[in-house]
What we know:
The structure is a single chain. The chain has 16 helices and eleven strands. By secondary structure, it is α+β, with helices and mostly antiparallel strands. Strand 5 and strand 6 (about 355) form a beta hairpin.
Amino acid sequence: MSIxxxxxxxxxxxxxxxxxxxxxxxxxxxxGRMKAIRESPIEMWGQRAYEEDIVQGRFFGRSSFILNAPDxxxxxxxxxxxxxxxxxxxxxxxxxxxxxxxxxxxGRAWKYQRRTLAPAFTPRAVMTLVPHMVTATDETxxxxxxxxxxxxxxxxxxxxxxxxxxxxxxxxxxxxxxxAALRDFVMEYGARLARPNFLDLxxxxxxxxxxxLSRARFRKRWTAFVGMLMAExxxxxxxxxxxxxxxxxxxxxxxxxxxxxxxxxxxxxxxVATMILAGHETTATALFWALYLLxxxxxxxxxxxxxxxxxxxxxxxxxxxxxxxxxxxxxxxxLYPPAFLIARAASGPDTVAGLPVKKxxxxxxxxxxxxxxxxxxxxxxxxxxARFMTGxxxxxxxxxxxxxxxxxxxxxxxxxxxxxxxxxRMIGAFRVxxxxxxxxKPIGVVTTxxxxxxxxxxxxx
Length: 461
């Protein structure tokens, strides 16, 4: 039986092609590129970047290389990854809110953090956190059901839900009292400080830009807030000898397998900030885009609902049986990758795909481009979840929703379990349609975000 027959997918209908930003003219001026970098970098690439394996250019006096060839990407992110570090602007934008946490640590510090944190994110460890995910999701469904007669902002609802999941899986307590403050921090940083300006790009990292001074003031307030959350969790205590009940326990009990060292309090705070922010914001955005696509494609939405009904009819929702729901999320993250750009600076000379790379040259690997590349995907701009159900997965270095190689996202399994369960619960409970018919376009601001939040109508099934 074919996939289409198994899932009753109407193969004859034309696939949905969701709206996307126009492609930049190949002769875009420096001013135009600077404007795009600040407002939405995914708008600075022209048609060549969607067709060619490697696009060479210049970036503030250095050579730059956009890589779309899987072998070249493997070389940079796996074979010789230690030669490529984050760019100065990446550090400028991320350090104030993530500190020295795993996401932006480099060298020995990164290796220490990675091996220390790894046991907290194994599939077995993640399964102990699933009850937190399910409870928070079911509460969100209940609240939406109670208000289902009115238009709803599902982006905001998904942000609140994933924040609640982040709070419960991290601390075992809800975010009723602290969620608004945390969202205010995230929104403030995204609106004022996450977009690089000209001096952020031009100045050496050890020369503070005016934005850096504002970021430093933000960081002082932010670290105090995270410290308060940690103090509240510690005050709640833990039964002596009881198993870990949340990520805070798991991370706090983690020890470097080589040295036996635990995280210091400052290091623990940076890990907490990284896990809460990187986890809840990217998952909320992926869920928003999945709901938006399913609202635009009612037939596919009904296939998800049918799968969910079939799985729940035999008992509890089993994430392993939600094959088509997972495929919808995989396809959503192909079209709207959580991290739209991976930027690296060469710390020494190298050769990539036969091209010489000098120290400080810039390597750009853009999942936004890679996932829509015309050589790598059939109908690259179309929403076709069935492409992930053929039994033949895409090239490992052509599909990077969570990165790849040694620095692949440590929370990838956690995020996929959370998002699959949440999407299944939402579509199993509601038929989702758009009230607002204006197109929603993606913009790149740290993550691939919508340019606005449309209103949805939800009808209980």
